[in-house]
Design a protein that fits this description.
Blueprint: H1 14-25, E1 28-41, E2 44-57, E3 61-65, H2 72-80, E4 87-92, E5 95-96, E6 104-107, H3 119-129, H4 134-147, H5 163-175, E7 181-185, H6 193-209, E8 213-217, H7 221-227, E9 230-235, E10 240-246, H8 261-274, H9 283-288
Parallel strand pairs: 3-8, 3-9, 6-7, 7-8
Antiparallel strand pairs: 1-2, 1-4, 4-5, 9-10
Helix pairs in contact: 3-4, 3-5, 4-5, 7-8
The chain binds adenosine-5'-triphosphate (ATP) and magnesium ion.
Length: 303
């Protein structure tokens, strides 16, 4: 994005601009060009995604936000190879994505661990399926469990862990195959606010220490700004890229920055994009508005 054309609320400091220059010199890991997806169902056709264009550089952290139903999960499922696009293309390291592969790790919102396997065996599962010997897989699992701080829980079962701990196992399980890109679909969406904040800084720590690129879907604007280098804002019906924002908040990020002018300006811009001010209602619209059914005495008002 050309700095001169950026509105002032997204102005970048020298430090941030230099960081983006460094990122832009890195090779492209993921390239999405004119990607579209139509679903056909008994209710008719839904254009879930249309003409999606963006690329992600190596070790970049990109968040995707947008209103419910704008195609975020559809996009990530296509990139994971779990669904097929109907137009355009998606390339990972220059090769078209045609199905699932070890070069991508997935973390979903729901806990997708195998409940009948211990934590360690959950993490060993992928490498063993990919032909690693038992000892090697166990060694790898141990290493990644250490990285997510769960080595002491290797022999526990998922139901014995808290929600945050389960998602940490899911992250270890996604990273154990050393994927090029980590695809995360609202991974912290089911966690309470405090655990979520801890998981966010934990994820940043992990990302800083390994060679992985992250594409992270979230509903939470603070989460997107705190985590991302760039934020891809989608709009719904059809799902299209509305704007790509280079987050002007410097790294290393800290929760104290939530109140910084850059953070607040970015949040205001995202709010404007996601929740535009409603158009004033026309008289006709007001006439057809259904009356709310009321179950209290008409004189008993609360405001
Ligand atoms: N298997 C399917 N068959 C038909 N339509 C689908 C299917 N999966 C998704 N859709 C439709 O595609 C659109 C995008 O759905 P998707 O789940 O990708 O949205 P989302 O942005 O992830 O929403 P949310 O924020 O609620 O998770 C929606 O209109 C949805 O109804
Ligand atoms: Mg979704």
């Amino acid at each position: 994005m050309n700095q001169d054309t950026l509105p002032s609320y997204l102005g970048q400091s020298e430090e941030v601009r230099a960081r983006f220059e460094r990122i832009n010199q890195r090779e492209t890991i993921l390239e999405v060009r004119g990607l579209g997806k139509r679903y056909r169902s008994a209710q008719g056709e839904v254009e879930a995604l249309s003409g999606i264009d963006f690329s992600v550089r190596r070790r970049e952290f990109v968040c995707v936000i947008g209103p419910s139903g704008c195609g975020k999960s559809t996009l990530i499922r296509i990139l994971a190879g779990l669904d097929h696009h109907t137009s355009g293309e998606a390339l990972l390291d220059g090769k078209p994505i045609k199905g699932p592969g070890q070069d991508r790790g997935m973390v979903f919102q729901g806990y997708s661990l195998f409940p009948w396997l211990t934590v360690k065996k959950n993490v060993m599962f992928g490498p063993q399926m990919n032909g690693r010997g038992r000892d090697e897989a166990e060694h790898d699992a141990q290493l990644w469990l250490e990285l997510v701080g769960l080595e002491k829980f290797a022999d526990a079962y998922p139901h014995q862990l808290s929600g945050g701990m389960r998602q940490r196992v899911a992250i270890a399980r996604a990273l154990v195959n050393q994927p090029r890109i980590l695809l995360m679909d609202e991974p912290f969406g089911a966690l309470d606010a405090q655990t979520r904040a801890k998981m966010q800084s934990h994820l940043i720590d992990i990302w800083k220490n390994i060679d992985v690129t992250v594409l992270f879907i979230t509903h939470d604007l603070d989460e997107a700004i705190y985590l991302a280098d760039r934020i891809l804002v989608l709009k719904a019906h059809p799902g299209e890229v509305q704007e790509i924002i280079e987050v002007p908040v410097p790294r290393s990020r800290t929760p104290a920055q939530f109140n910084s002018p850059e953070f607040r300006a970015t949040k205001a811009r995202l709010e404007e994009l996601i929740h535009p001010a409603p158009e004033p209602e026309t008289e006709d619209e007001q006439k057809v508005k259904p009356h709310l059914i009321r179950f209290t005495d008409v004189t008993d008002n609360v405001e």
